[in-house]
Structures are given as C-alpha cells and as structure tokens.
Design brief:
The complex is a heterodimer of chains A (1014) and B (457).
Chain A: H1 2-12, H2 14-24, H3 33-45, H4 57-70, H5 75-98, H6 105-128, H7 130-151, H8 164-172, H9 175-191, H10 196-209, H11 215-224, H12 226-244, H13 248-255, H14 263-295, H15 314-330, H16 332-345, H17 348-359, H18 363-379, H19 384-395, H20 411-434, H21 456-461, H22 465-473, H23 479-509, H24 513-527, H25 533-546, H26 552-574, H27 580-593, H28 595-598, H29 607-619, H30 628-655, H31 659-679, H32 681-696, H33 729-735, E1 749-750, E2 753-754, H34 770-789, H35 791-798, H36 814-828, H37 849-861, H38 865-874, H39 883-899, H40 909-924, H41 930-933, H42 944-960, E3 968-971, E4 976-979, H43 988-1000, H44 1002-1005
Antiparallel strand pairs in A: 1-2, 3-4
Helix pairs in contact in A: 2-6, 3-4, 4-5, 4-6, 5-6, 6-7, 6-9, 7-9, 7-10, 8-11, 10-12, 10-14, 11-12, 11-14, 12-14, 12-15, 14-15, 14-16, 15-16, 15-18, 18-20, 19-20, 20-23, 22-23, 23-24, 23-25, 25-27, 26-27, 26-29, 29-31, 30-31, 30-32, 31-32, 31-34, 32-34, 32-36, 36-38, 37-39, 38-40, 39-40, ...
Chain B: H1 5-8, H2 13-34, H3 43-52, H4 69-85, H5 89-100, H6 108-125, H7 128-140, H8 143-160, H9 165-169, H10 171-174, H11 176-189, H12 201-213, H13 220-224, H14 241-265, H15 275-299, H16 310-330, H17 335-358, H18 366-373, H19 380-387, H20 445-448
The chains are: A mainly alpha (1014), B mainly alpha (457).
Domain Integrator complex subunit 5 C-terminal (chain A): 264-1005
Pfam family, one (chain A): INTS5_C
InterPro entries (chain A): ARM-type_fold, INTS5, INTS5_C, INTS5_N
C-alpha cells in the first residue's frame, strides 16, 4: 500500500510539487529575537522550552526548518539534524517494507510530509539563490545519499548492489532518497552553468567513498545529465590525473596496485562504466573528442569549447593521452568502446600531431605509455586485426616498390610504430610462454589441463588466422617477419587447433618455395611444443577438400605444396641433412594415410587439379595397410586419370600450350600406376585389369589407333552443319510426369536416331595422327610392362633373385601377365563357350565362326591388342590363357588365306601383319618351338595359300602340343618360366610343310633357311 | 590557566569547549580585578582557546578534533548567553579578543568561521553585547578580515536566507556602532569593480534606509573613538564616507553595465531601479558632510583630520576615468544615455568634492584636485569646482596647507582622549542636531551652502 503510494509519487512527481508550492506560500511570520533564541534552545535541547516537554521527531524537524528559514548561522546544524530525520525515514521505510507494511505505516507517512516540507524549503532556496545554495545542498545531499545507501545496503529488502535497476527502483520509491536526489539534480542543473567541475568533484568523491552502494545515484544522475556528466567526469578525472602526476600509472597497471594514490580515476571508470549501458555512444564521442582536442595544436581557443577549460592548458592536453590510456587500461568497457574508432582516427596527420605532442614527454613516461599501450592492445577483445593491420602498415618502411594502403608516414611515426609492434610481440611472447608456470617441464601438457590466462588480443586474432597467413605470405620486408612471429605465438597460444589452422592455411596459400618455407619455419618453431601438428594439418586439409571450401586454384596449390613437401624428402636423402627431413617424412606418412581422400581428385574437372593430385600421389609413399575398397577405388581413379592424361597430352600437343605439363602428367601417372601396382597383388591385378579394359574401351580406343565400328550407315555430316534435333531422352524423361505427349516422346527415340528425323548424325571422329598413336601405345605398353615387372609380385615369387644386370629390363612377371591375358580374353572374346585351352582340330573351327569373326574384328578395331599380346607372351606362360583368342584369330586368318585369291600375301596387309604378329607372339610365349615361330618371317614373301599352309602347321602343332601352363618350368638362373620342347612330341612332323614351302620358293627364301633348321 | 588542559583533554569536544569558556570567564574576571594595566591574556590561554574552541590542529600528528555542526551551534548558543550574561564591558571585550583577535596563525581560519557564525547568530537573536564587541573587533582588525566578516553576514542575510533581511535591518537599532562598522566594511568590500563586487539590492536598500533614517549613523565610530593614535594600520576607515561616496559616484556607470549584461542575457527580470536609491544615498552623504564642521570643531579637529583620504580619492578618479573611457569606447548605440550617465557620475563627484572640501572632510588644494581629476572628461560642474578661486576654509584660522592631510595617526595632544562611551548612548551629544531631511528633493542643500563661485551665465 505504502509502496504503491510511493511509486505513484515517483512517477508523476506532482505531490512533491504540490507540497512545495503550498509551503512557499505559507505565511511566514517574522519571529522576534527572543522567539528565535527560544527556538534555537529548543532545537538544541530537543525540548520545547516554553512547555517543557520533549519534541517529537516531527516537531523537532519543523523547528529545524524554521531555523533554516530565519537563522542563517544554524544552517549547518539544521542540515546535520535533517540527516538524522532522513535516516529515520529511510529506516522506517525499509522496516515497513520488511514487515509488509502492517503496523507502523503512520510513522513513515508522518515523516514523509516533513521531508517534503524540507524539500520544499531547500528547492525554494536553490531556486532563489542557486549560487549560494546549490554547492551547499549538493554536497550535503550527495554525502547524505552516500551515507544512507551504504548504511542501509545490508538490509534484507535492499537488493544487492550489483542489481542497479532494482536498487534504483527501491531508493526512488523512498521519499527521503528521492527528495535528496531531486534536490541534487536541481543543484546540478543550476551549477552546471557556472562551476560544473565542483559538483562532479563532489559526486566523484562520494562515489569513491561509498563505492558500490552509491552507484545508483551516479547512474541516475548520469542518465539525467548524460552529456554534461560524461564530459565533466572526464575533465575532472583528467585534472586529477594530471595533478597526481603520471608517475604511478605504470606501477598501477603492472602491479594492479589499487591504492588510493589516484582515487578519482577509479570512480571515473566506475561511473562511465555505468553510463556505458545506455550512453555508450556519447561516452565514445566524448572520449574521442578528448583525444582529438588534445592533439589540436595549441592555437586560439575554439569558442565552442568554452564550457570545458582543460583544452586551454597545455599541461592538461599533454596529459590527455596518457589519461585516456590509463582509463582504457582500467575499464575494458571503455576501451572496447573507443578502440574500434580510434584506429580509424589515426590517419597520418593525426599521427604527426600525436608524435609532436609526445615528443615533449620524458623518456620514462613514454616508456610507461608504450607499455600501457602494449598491455591494452594485448587485452583488447575486439578490433585486434584492425589494430594489427594499422600497426604493420604504419611500421612497414616506405618503399618505392610496395605501395601500402596508406601513404608512407613520417619516419619518426614509423619508428614509433615499429617499436610498439616489437614490444607488443615481446609482450605477447611473455604472455604466451609464461602463462602456465607449472608445466614448463612438460610442454605437451600446457595446452590442456592448466587454467590459462586469456589474452583477448590473441583470442580474437584466432579467427583471423587465414588473413594473417595471407599477409605473411606476401613476404613484404619486415612485415612478414612480424606476422610470422605472431603466427607462431598465436599457434602456441591457441593450441593444436589454431596451429593446425595456421599451418594448413600456409600450406594452402603458399605459391612458391620461398613462401612454403614459411610453413616449414612455423613447423620448426612449433614442433618443439606440439606433437602431431602435421598429421592434423593434413587431416584438416582433407576436410577442406571434402567440404569443397577450396577453389580449384587453391586446391591445386595445396596439392602441389604437399607434393613439394614430400619431394623435399627425396632431395634430403640425396644431399644435405636438414630439419625438414623429419617433417617431409611426416608429411609423407600423413598424406599416405589419406590417399583414398585424394584419389577422387584425380578425376577433378580442372586439369590443373588432377595434375597436381597425380603429382602428389605419385610421390607420396603408400600406406602400410589399406582397405581393399579404397585400393580399388584408387586404382580405378588412377587408371582413368591415366587415359585422361593421355588424351590431354594429345590435345595439348595440338594446342602447343600446356604440352609440357600434360606430358609431365602422363609421366606422373605412369609412375603412380607402377608404384601402385607394385604395392600389393590386389592392386597389381586391379591396375592391370583396368588398364587393359580401359585401353580397349570404346572411348579410349581412338587413343591407340582403334576404330569403333560404326553401325549407322548415315553419311558423315559436314562439321559446319550440326543440327541439334533437340531430342534428348533425358529431357523427355524429366518431362514425363507432367506431360503426356507421345509424339516424339521416349518411344520414338532410338539409339539410331529419332523416328521420323532420319538416322542419327554420325559424329565426326577425329583420328589422331599416327605419331601420337604410337606414342600413346608406347606409353601404355610402358605402363603395363612396368606394372608387370614391378616388384609387387616378383617379390613374392622370386624375391630372392637380385637384378643381375641393371641394363636388362626386369622380366615380365608371370602372374601379372596372366592378369593381362585373362583380361584380354574377357574383353575380346565374350563368349566363354569352347573356352578351354587345348585346341581342337582345325575343321572344328567352323563351329565357332561367329565368335572368331568377332575376335578378328576386335583385333582390327584395336591395334593395341597385338602389343598387349606381346607383353603377355613375354610373361610366360601367361599366353596360354589367351588360347581361345589366339585360336579364334588364327581360325579367321586361316579362312582368309584360304579364300584369298591374291597373288601375294602382301595384298592383304592387315592379315599379313596379323599373321606375323600372331605367330611371333606365340613363339615368344613359347606356345611354338622356335622353328615354327620363325615362319612369320617368310610370310611377306609367300602367296596366301602358302601362308595358310604354314599357319595350318602352326595350328597342327598347337593342337598336338596343347598350350598348357603346366608345361612351363621355372628356371631359376634366368628368372623365367621356360618350356622344354624336347618333352613334347617330335617337331619334325610339323616342319615338313615349312620345308616344302622353302623348297618351293628357295629363290626368295634361301636366306631364311637357317631359321628353320631343327 | 595552562594546567586545566589535562582535565580538558578527556572531555568530549563540546563539554571541553564549554568548560574552557567557563574558566576563561573566571580568568579574565580575575585579570581585570587584579587591576594590572593593560590587562593582557597570556599566550597559554590563547593556545588553549585555539585547541579546544577553534580546534586548530596542534601538530601534524594528532588530527584536530572537529565539532559537528550541531555541537558548534550549541557552543555558539553558549557563547551568546555567556556574553549576554557578563555584565562587565571590559571582561566581555577581553574575552572577545581572547577568542577572536587574529593571531596570524593556522587557527585564524576557524576563528574567522566561528566569528562569522557567532555574529550572524547574534544578529538573529539580538545579542547586543556581542555586536558591540564585534564592532570593536572591526575597528581593530585588518580590513581584509573585516571585509570577510561583512561578506559572511551579507551572504547569510541577503542571499542565503531570503526572508531574513529585516533581521539584519534591526542591527541599526540594536547596535549602531556595529551597524556603522558594518557599513564601512561593506562599502570597502563592494567597490563596484565587477558584478560580484556590486552590493545586493537588499543590502543597498537597507543601507540607504539606515542612513536616511539617521545620517549620523555613519559618524558614530568617529564620534566614539578616541583619536589616540591607537588606530591600527590598514584597518577600516573611521567612517564609511569614502566608500559611500565611491558607491554614489560609480553607481551610474556600474549599474549601467549590469543592466546591459542583463539585457544581453535575455533575462526579463525587472529589478527595481537602483538610481533613486543612489540619489538618496548621495544626498545623505552630502548631508553627513555638512554635519562635519560642527563635530570637528567640537573636537577641535577641523582642518586637521581628513575623513576622506587623498589616496582613495585618487584611486576613485583614475577608476572613473578608465570606466568612462570604456563607456565611450564600447557604447555606440545609446550614446546619449551613456553621456547622461557619465555626466551624472561627474556631477556627483564634483558635488561630493565640493561639499567635502567645504566641510573639512577633504584636506587638499585645488591644484591637488586638478592633478587628480586631470584625466576625467569635461563636466561643467567639475570644472567649476576645480577652477574656482582658491578657497580656504570658512574658518580661516586654521592653516590648511601646512597640515598634512594624512595626519590621522598623529596624536593630537591638545585633545584629551574621550572617556569610553557607554554603548547604549553613543551619540547623545548629537541627538538634538537637525539630522536628516529625507523628504527633501535632491537640490535644496545647494542653496544653503556657501558657494563662492557661480557660473557667469
């Protein structure tokens, strides 16, 4: 009830005013001197001297007010007495609140009217003569407010001093404190006109005295007079700061010595801190204004700043900057408010002014300020990046080459900034490395357990690691040294995550070896205190790849950098020993752990990326263990990339540009494949299989001179006219749900063309020129041979054998050759019927005519088959597994030669070549004894029929001596499987037709006779 | 007396002070009774006063105890009654001077503060003995402190407590001596050089009404003081005449300045015009001058004692010339108004000079005057006064030029010192004198006075 009433008073304030006016007009009878004397006696003794009874509190207070009005000398005593009255009222008020206002509400209301009476008198006085009364009453009111607030702070109903709003609510609902507050506001309003500093001084003093409990007063006054209070408070603080000298400041910051040496600055900070909640803008404005005006050269006084006088004193102006620094050091809030805009303000002219101002200070003081500034920067929670950029920009020496974002500052300013930056780095270094004292012996622990001191500057910069790295990598003069040092500190501070991030960024952004070296430097610094940095960084890079956060260029750069890192290992091995070696090994092992993640990048749409990937993969070591799925995927990707690289090389050769790169890509791809094949039997098999399949694939056939049989008979369209029919099965399917349009829909689209639109236009196949075909074939063969002869299987089978002659190429591995053979058979001869190895009689070939024709077409379409067969043949006894293919080809050749009515075998060149190659292959594969194998040398000189005779002899031999792998025996001295033909039946039986043919054509074949001796 | 210190030390502040007062009373009574001449309070006692009443810090280590404002009020009340109850004038005076005569030490500040409060309170509750003592104090003390006391009283009664002017007004009837000294102090304080040093309107009204009621008021100190050479150096003037004359002469210029400021401030407060007040005051001052010959003759001092000092006059004229220069420079708009005011100023100066010289208040030759007034702008009346035939005093028997005008401190052997007047009948010899004519217009006194030179128109 009482509270309600009080609240209403708070919010409209009218009752007070009503009381005042009623009292101002109350009849004042001038008292006689005797009466006054009596009155004074009564007041002093508290007893009514006329009636001899004790005065009540209320009467006593009335008496006091009367004296206040009539006897000036009693002023002090009356005000002192009124303190008691106010105190009493506050006590009653609080008591009332505590007892829920049941009993003694009368007391408080009684006193309340007295308080309003007093308030009326005081405000009347203040209004009539503010000069005389305002200082007096304001001091009294502030002091009393402070006393009351701290005295009753411990009461049950009083909220804790930190909840400012509740506190304000409580005190403003109490008539006594509210009246005091209003009186003070009145005084302040009056005094601001002529002595603003005095009233704020009193406020500050009281605030210091009753520190937390008095805050609500300051907050209230501050929000009532924000503009003036803020600037006055600042001016007061500055004056006080200046008069106390600046000697203690360094001590205060470093040691945190919060003695009463500089009492006011503390309360300045407190007050501004309160006001910051609602008036941060004006606070910021005032602070910045103070800064700017302190810099203005001491010219004529600006007429606008007449109210504040500190600008006029050079001493104060010089103290302004240290003062602001001190202020900022003591209040993070204030600092945060100013720091952001301060940096913007520091343009070259301002810097020059600042330098001019600070030059006058003694060195010791400058050092203090510098230390303070460094401390502040390291503690600044936001804007650190901007500050850093500013410092670096300003401190970077002016250069003709590099034009910074700002015009080059004065040399003195630059040196100052340089020094500041150095000190900042030093300070941060101390902070970072000293923050956990206990764990110096065990640096690995420092990141985890110890509760650490937070350095806000570094905290904030953690999110700018990327930019820092980019800046560092620009390698500008001194700047990159600073930034690199900062990166190190940041990494140590932020622990593994930040270090990883930084390292990762450097790896991604470095563009050349010099820049990459920065990454190694970082690692060298950090490696002492951080384990597992490189694996983590690589893992992070991989994560970036997965999330597609990197653009193609960055991705490429990253991959190249990793590759370079690994390759440096090889160089190390060869030459000098350096710190990088271990790191290169670490990178290698880390990358090898993520090979399957890099694999898909081989097929990246950007050739540069895929090239970089292959470079990386080709040089990275392979993991010890890896899951088959990964291996298969990798091998598939690698093989696919191989063909892509071949195609690009072809195209690149035409372009003339990128040719070298494409060639290198092919080389890398070859290397990758061979190394990969050597990794394990599984990979070997997969690689070979896919290589062969890929070589025979329709899309790749043209690389190796193959021609896809075109089924359509449509004429080749001229390249200029390529009408787009607009028919797309995909489109039709997409539309299928929405429209039902069967004319020209899915049903009318065939592989041969759209019904009604004629045959599908033949795409012009661009035939490669023979030289590149040859090159491609050679490359493919080289890969296959390398794969087949690599140590993967050799090790398991004939690992004991040392390469006796380094010039001699390593032998083709039988198992690998078998893989190729099987794959060939699967691709060339899809029909598995009659797939057994042993050959039937020649007549039986007519049962498999269709299949044989298919096989022959295959050979026609893929010239690369013959070289592959030769590879297989070299890996004896693998050719046995190609038996079906050989048989089919031979059957068709026999049929051809039989039907041929040409004069010479050279008239059917393809068949002649095929026959020669086939026989030589079989000879190489030791399906034929040397006598028979040599027959192909005679083929070009013979007639088709004679060729058929000879081929028939071959058939007969093979039919008689089946191509069985078990007939081959491993000869350890050669390191090869060999077939002992002596165990087979007599060769002479099959040689007879050869000799007949020789005899017949002895004139032309004489020089070959020795080839057919048994 | 020194031995009571130990007994006072453990007491609380107020009772120690009370007890000391009590002992002081007894001690001084004994001193007076012992008949030693002159009665002198010893330094130990003064130290006790400083320690226990004024609470001056005795040394740096022990912080001085302080009274609360309430205790101080009680002490003041006790002092009031103490002085009131002491019947013997000598004892009172001795006690007052023991308490409040300045010693030139640290305690003087608190002494002044306490004195201010005591006098202020005595005015409020009408303690005449205290006012009489204060009047004596004002006569003996350096004028700087007198001015401070006056300032306290003016602040208290004219600015701080709005309704209390009548109380101050009463001192005229309560203690004319004090009132006279107060006027002297106030006129010394407010020399109209700046806004702060312009007397508040209430004060002005009060003083004018006092002097109008009884012009001889301003002479009371002079009448009651034995000119025995005991006048301390740089104390207040014996009469406020010089100060009052300064007020009247400078007022037109000073208040014109104020008015201008008010106008520029945009304040719409229309204060009652001070012009008539100063006119009346000027008249009163002139009337007082005219009272002088009789009094001086009575005392045998005519032509020997200059109540207006030449130095202060010189200061006034140089001030005036500066002000008039400024007025000429700064006002271009209302030049007629300015001119009128300047002329009024110079008129008043001329009148005052003439009357003062004629009545023996100012002892100098016209050459001296011309030198002093040489820089002032032209004014007919002043011209007349300055250029008139060398006129000696009416009573030609006194050689004027041989006598130094600054002879106030020289003992005049031919006149025995006056016996001490009783405070209540200070000016009984003058009561039947035709005192004042407040209803008169400004001019008539001109006709009554001897005016040896008239303009030739």
């Amino acid at each position: 009830m009482v509270k309600d009433q009080a609240m209403s008073v708070v919010f409209d304030g009218s009752p007070l005013k009503a009381m005042q006016s009623s009292h101002t007009h109350s009849p004042r009878t001038a008292l006689s001197t005797q009466e006054l004397s009596q009155e004074i006696k009564s007041f002093i003794s508290g007893v009514d001297t006329v009636q001899g009874r004790k005065l009540s509190v209320r009467e006593h207070a009335r008496c006091a007010v009367r004296l206040l009005r009539s006897v000036p000398a009693c002023r002090g005593a009356v005000l002192e007495h009124l303190r008691g009255v106010y105190d009493e009222h506050v006590s009653a008020f609080l008591h009332n609140l505590e007892t829920e206002g049941d009993a003694n509400s009368v007391v408080s209301s009684n006193l309340e009217d007295i308080i309003q009476e007093v308030h009326g008198v005081l405000s009347e006085f203040i209004r009539l003569n503010p000069r005389a009364w305002a200082p007096l009453v304001s001091t009294w009111a502030v002091d009393l407010l402070g006393q009351l607030s701290s005295k009753h702070a411990g009461r049950r109903v009083a909220p804790h001093s930190s909840s400012l709003n509740e506190l304000l609510q409580l005190w403003m609902s109490c008539a006594a404190t509210r009246s005091l507050m209003e009186a003070y506001s009145l005084c302040l309003a009056a005094m601001l006109a002529w002595c603003p500093d005095a009233c704020v001084d009193a406020l500050l003093d009281t605030s210091v005295q009753h520190s937390p409990h008095f805050d609500w007063v300051v907050a209230h006054i501050g929000s009532a007079f924000p503009g003036t209070i803020i600037s006055r408070v600042l001016a007061c603080g500055l004056k006080d700061f200046c008069s106390h000298g600046t000697k203690d400041q360094g001590l205060m910051v470093m040691g945190g010595d919060k003695g009463n040496r500089v009492p006011k600055i503390g309360s300045v900070v407190g007050i501004l801190g309160h006001l910051a909640a609602h008036h941060s803008d004006s606070i910021r404005r005032e602070l910045l204004r103070m800064f700017q005006e302190s810099l203005n050269p001491s010219g004529p006084l600006s007429p606008t700043s007449s109210s504040t006088s500190w600008e006029s004193s050079p001493q104060l102006r010089r103290a302004a900057v240290p003062f602001l620094l001190q202020l900022a050091a003591m209040s993070p809030n204030l600092f945060g408010a100013v720091s952001a805009e301060l940096v913007e303000l520091l343009r070259p002219p301002v810097l020059l002014q600042l330098q001019a101002l600070l030059q006058g200070l003694p060195r010791e003081e400058l050092d203090n300020m510098l230390g303070l500034a460094v401390h502040l920067i390291s503690q600044s929670p936001s804007g650190g990046a901007r500050v850093l950029r500013f410092l670096a920009d300003t401190a970077t020496p002016a250069s003709v080459i590099i034009s910074g974002p700002t015009p080059s500052p004065h040399e003195g300013v630059r040196e100052g900034c340089d020094r500041l930056l150095q000190m900042l780095l030093l300070h941060l270094h101390k902070l970072v490395f000293n923050r956990s004292d206990g764990t110096e012996g065990n640096p690995f622990h420092s990141a985890s357990s110890q509760p650490q001191r937070v350095t806000p500057f570094l905290e904030e910069l953690q999110s700018h690691v990327g930019e820092l790295c980019a800046e560092t990598l620009r390698l500008e003069r001194k700047r990159h040294l600073w930034l690199h040092q900062l990166l190190c500190l940041l990494s140590v501070y932020g622990g593994p995550s930040v270090a990883t991030e930084a390292f990762c960024q450097l790896l991604t952004q470095a563009r050349n070896p010099e820049e990459l070296a920065l990454a190694w430097q970082l690692h060298t610094t950090l490696s002492s205190c951080m384990a597992g940095l490189i694996p983590a960084a690589v893992a992070r890079c991989v994560a970036q790849i997965h999330t597609h956060t990197l653009g193609p260029r960055q991705l490429r750069q990253l991959l190249l950098n990793l590759a370079a890192a690994i390759q440096s290992q090889d160089e190390e091995r060869r030459g000098s020993v350096g710190a990088q070696s271990s790191m290169a090994i670490q990178v290698g092992s880390a990358v090898s752990g993520h090979l399957h993640d890099f694999g898909p990048l081989l097929l990246h749409g950007d050739p540069a990326v895929s090239h970089a990937t292959v470079r990386l993969l080709s040089c990275s070591p392979l993991p010890r263990t890896s899951s088959p799925a990964h291996l298969l995927l990798l091998s598939r990707a690698a093989v696919t990339h191989f063909f892509l690289a071949l195609r690009r090389r072809g195209e690149g050769g035409k372009m003339g540009r990128d040719g070298g790169q494409a060639g290198e890509a092919v080389n890398c791809s070859v290397q990758l494949l061979s190394r990969f094949a050597a990794y394990s039997p599984l990979t070997l098999k997969a690689v070979l299989q896919q290589l062969v399949e890929g070589a025979l694939h329709k899309g790749n056939a043209d690389l190796f001179g193959g021609q896809i049989a075109d089924m359509s008979g449509a004429p080749l369209a001229s390249p200029s006219v390529s009408p787009d029919l607009g028919a797309s099965l995909l489109d039709v399917n997409c539309r299928f749900g929405t429209t039902v349009n069967f004319s020209g829909s899915v049903w009318s689209v065939f592989h041969a063309g759209v019904i009604g639109k004629g045959l599908k236009i033949r795409t012009a196949t661009q035939l490669l020129d023979s030289s590149s075909v040859i090159q491609n074939v050679q490359t493919l063969l080289a890969v296959v041979v390398q794969c087949c002869s690599s140590s993967g299987l050799n090790g398991s089978i004939n690992g004991s054998r040392l390469p006796s002659d380094p010039d001699e190429p390593p032998p083709i591995n039988a198992e690998a050759a078998k893989v190729v053979a099987v794959t060939l058979v699967e691709n060339v001869c899809p029909d598995v019927a009659n797939g057994e190895l042993s050959w039937p009689p020649e007549e039986h070939a007519r049962t498999t005519v269709e299949r044989d024709i298919h096989i022959r077409r295959c050979f026609e379409a893929h010239p690369v088959l013959f070289p592959l067969l030769q590879v297989v043949a070299a890996g004896r006894p693998a050719l046995c597994y190609c038996s079906a293919v050989l048989r089919g080809l031979l059957a068709t050749l026999l049929a051809h030669w039989e039907a041929s009515r040409e004069i010479s075998s050279t008239d059917s060149p393809w068949h002649l070549q095929a026959s020669c190659l086939l026989v030589s292959c079989m000879g190489e594969g030791q399906l034929l004894p040397p006598v028979l194998a040599n027959v192909h040398e005679a083929f070009p000189l013979l007639t088709p029929f004679e060729v058929r005779l000879l081929l028939l002899a071959v058939w007969e031999y093979v039919r008689g001596n089946g191509p069985m792998p078990q007939k081959f025996v491993f000869s350890s001295e050669k390191g090869l499987f060999c077939r002992d033909f002596s165990r087979d039946g007599d060769v002479a039986r099959y040689v007879a037709p050869i000799h007949s043919v020789l005899h017949k054509n002895i004139d032309r074949l004489g020089h070959l006779c020795w080839r057919f001796q048994l | 007396m020194g031995d009571i210190r130990q007994s006072l030390l453990p007491r609380d502040v107020l009772s120690a002070a009370k007890e000391l007062l009590y002992h002081l009373d007894i001690y001084i009574c004994n001193l007076v009774q012992s008949g030693r001449q002159p009665p002198q309070v010893d330094s130990k006692t003064l130290e006790l006063v400083e320690e226990f009443i004024l609470h001056a810090p005795k040394d740096r280590n022990t912080p001085g105890r302080r009274m609360s404002a309430l205790q101080e009020l009680q002490l003041l009340e006790i002092m009031c009654s103490c002085f009131q109850e002491q019947s013997r004038d000598t004892v009172r005076q001795l006690m007052f001077s023991a308490l409040f005569s300045l010693q030139g030490n640290q305690a003087d500040e608190s002494r002044m503060a306490l004195l201010g409060k005591l006098v202020s309170m005595a005015i409020a509750v009408g303690r005449i003995p205290i006012l009489e003592c204060a009047a004596t104090w004002l006569q003996r003390t350096h004028c700087v402190y007198c001015v401070r006391l006056a300032q306290v009283l003016v602040d208290d009664y004219c600015s701080m407590v709005p309704g209390s002017v009548p109380t101050l007004q009463n001192i005229h009837s309560a203690s004319p001596r004090f009132c006279c000294q107060f006027i002297t102090a106030v006129t010394t304080l407010y020399d109209l050089t700046s806004e702060e040093l312009t007397p508040p309107l209430e004060l002005l009204q009060m003083i004018v009404s006092w002097i109008q009621d009884d012009p001889r008021l301003v002479l009371i100190t002079f009448l009651n003081t034995p000119l025995s050479g005991s006048q301390p150096i740089s104390s207040l003037d014996v009469t406020p005449l010089g100060g009052l004359m300064r007020w009247c002469v400078k007022a037109p210029l000073a208040y014109r300045r104020d008015k201008k400021q008010v106008l520029t401030n945009g304040s719409t407060e229309n204060e009652p015009d001070t012009g008539p007040l100063f006119s009346a005051l000027h008249l009163s001052v002139l009337q007082v001058f005219m009272l002088l010959p009789n009094i001086l003759n009575e005392k045998g001092l005519f032509g020997r004692l200059a109540l207006l000092q030449m130095e202060s006059l010189a200061a006034l004229t140089s001030d005036l010339s500066r002000l008039l220069d400024q007025a000429d420079k700064h006002t271009h708009t209302s030049s007629t108004d300015t001119h009128a005011l300047s002329q009024l100023t110079l008129d008043r100066l001329a009148q005052a000079l003439q009357v003062a010289m004629a009545n023996g208040a100012l002892l100098c030759s016209r050459e001296d005057l011309r030198a002093i007034c040489s820089r002032l702008p032209h004014n007919n009346l002043l011209q007349l006064v300055l250029s008139g035939p060398v006129m000696y005093y009416n009573n030609i028997h006194t050689p004027p030029l041989a006598f130094s005008p600054h002879a106030a401190h020289s003992p005049i052997a031919s006149h025995p010192t006056h016996p001490a007047h009783t405070p209540h009948t200070p000016h009984t010899p003058l009561t039947n004198h035709p005192s004042s004519h407040p209803q008169y217009p400004g001019q008539p006194f001109m006709t009554g006075m001897p005016f040896p030179f008239r303009p030739s128109h």
